[in-house]
Design goal:
Layout lengths: L1 H14 L7 H16 L8 H5 L7 H10 L5 H5 L12 H15 L9 H4 L2 H22 L20 H30 L10 H13 L21 H29 L11 H25 L11 H23 L6 H18 L5 H17 L12
Helix pairs in contact: 2-6, 4-6, 4-15, 8-13, 8-14, 9-14, 9-15, 10-15, 11-12, 12-13, 13-14
Keywords: Membrane, Transmembrane, Transmembrane helix
Protein name: Tricarballylate utilization protein B
């Protein structure tokens, strides 16, 4: 009966042109009203200064603030109204549930938004296995039968898969991922901009937000000692492992970009040896990415049950596993160059990379894109006069 009443209420609101909040959004609005009255956590992160500039929380405000949250857990362990208190204030968990909803709501194409709920570890590994098997079959069919899987090919990687074939396989998948993420965050930006003063980006605001992103400023707990993971102890482990992962990924991407320039502009095709720049960037990046993802996996397994949204753990772990498999298979491929293990490892590595690209727009990677957009809007908004004239940033 209560569900029917809720549906009737929502239908009337929609008919009147009102914006209806989902249950997770309404819960964030409720908790922020309580936090706005308390303000004990005001110095912890960007969420609370943004909160104090509002007396009410509409859908765009909630989406903006939820994506500012870094899920560090500091406010949960400091809160006097946290469970088991009857107010049941759990900001990290409530924000995480809304973030998951925003990823799905802003997905492009919209029909694929449900992949966020289905992007689990089993699906990710099955996708890697399927793509790897497909590539292995291609090697067998175009080589010397099954024996082609156990031979060191003439010409290295390109003796197995020609360069143009690899470009034809991976470029469309990568470009689709970029397009899907770009269109999704553009819609998000358009929605939250009016709710965050509407002022345009400025150079100082962009520099501040960029600094916050690159340093993961808001994983320091607001005091520099770090955030929380499995208990109420401060730790910098999450920040450090995120840094290893982020910069490892960026170095690997830089290695691929430099190798592309070498190939097309300098007529220097792969493979490359030390001390070439692609090999240096890729080697350091691969090791960093492997360390970071192994650390994040361990932290995820030990995470406090009240931190974050348990329903998103399969998506989180799938992304970590794909990054780890991409890094370790790439390093193993480097070590196996010139050996009979090269064909198998190349197929595994290419399968992992293609699975990673295919799931980028519909997995945990999106949180970095939406969070960056929110940090940019926060840096712009805080430079505008406080609309309610209470307190300061």
């Amino acid at each position: 009966m209560q569900a029917l009443e809720a549906l009737t209420r929502d239908a009337k609101a929609l008919a009147n042109g009102e914006i209806v909040l989902s249950d997770p959004e309404a819960e964030v609005a409720r908790q922020l009203q309580i936090c706005n009255a308390c303000r004990y956590c005001e110095g912890f992160c960007a969420v609370f200064p943004a909160m104090t500039r509002r007396l009410e929380f509409g859908k765009a405000d909630i989406h903006f603030i939820a994506n500012l949250c870094h899920n560090c857990g500091a406010c949960l362990h400091a809160c006097q109204y946290a469970p088991p208190h009857e107010f049941a204030v759990n900001v990290p968990q409530a924000m995480a549930q809304v973030r998951g909803q925003t990823y799905a709501d802003y997905a492009w194409p919209p029909a694929l938004g449900q992949l966020y709920q289905r992007n689990g570890l089993t699906l990710a590994l099955a996708l890697v296995a399927g793509l790897t098997l497909f590539l292995l079959l291609a090697v067998v069919l175009h080589g010397q039968g099954v024996n082609a899987l156990w031979q060191s090919p003439v010409g290295g990687f390109y003796g197995i898969f020609p360069h143009n074939l690899l470009v034809g396989l991976f470029a469309p998948v990568f470009l689709f991922a970029v397009l899907a993420l770009g269109l999704g965050v553009r819609r998000f930006w358009r929605d939250v901009t009016p709710a965050t003063s509407g002022a345009p980006l400025s150079t100082p605001a962009t520099a501040e937000a960029t600094d916050a992103v690159l340093r993961l400023k808001y994983l320091d707990g607001g005091h520099g000692d770090g955030c929380h993971n499995e208990d109420d102890a401060y730790t910098l482990s999450r920040r450090r492992m995120h840094h290893f992962t982020f910069y490892g990924f960026m170095l690997c991407f830089a290695a691929t970009s430099v190798a592309t320039l070498y190939h097309y502009l300098l007529d220097m095709p792969a493979p490359y040896d030390l001390p070439s720049l692609p090999k240096l960037l890729g080697g350091i990046g691969g090791v960093s990415l492997a360390i970071g993802t192994a650390g994040l996996w361990r932290l995820n397994l030990r995470r406090h049950p009240l931190h974050g949204d348990a329903a998103q753990k399969p998506m989180d772990r799938a992304f970590i596993a794909l990054l780890f498999l991409t890094a370790t298979s790439g390093l193993a491929l480097w070590a196996a160059r010139g050996t009979a293990g090269l064909p198998l490892l190349l197929c595994l590595h290419l399968g992992a990379v293609m699975a990673l690209f295919a799931t980028l727009p519909y997995g945990k990677f999106a949180h970095g894109i939406f969070r960056t957009a929110s940090l940019l809007r926060h840096a712009v908004e805080k430079r505008q006069p406080n609309p309610i004239g209470l307190g300061t940033d």
